[in-house]
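B., you asked whether I could sanity-check this one before it goes into the benchmark set. Here's the sequence:
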Amino acid sequence: MEIDKIIHEPARLRIMMILAGLEQADFSFLVTTLGLTRGNLNRHMEKLESAGYLKVKRSFRGKVRNTSYQLTQKGFKALAQYWENLDTVRQSGQP
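And here's what the prediction gave me:
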């Protein structure tokens, strides 16, 4: 049993938790909600996307580019496994 280091990073865990509760979220919403810089959020999203945890949807609203994200099935499963593994680690430290 190993803790997923991609999810375990605090900002990425917060991203995963937000997306787990929403159908999808756009980049601007995540920047505002998380209080991260655009560049920092972009790097975290790239890591999560490369792991297969996020689906990225790029579109236009009028002439403005919009990028939104949603968790993939793999992302939901990885997050559930992350919490199970964390509980196991937490419980193993108790008498």
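One thing to flag: The chain has one domain: 5-85. Otherwise nothing jumped out at me.
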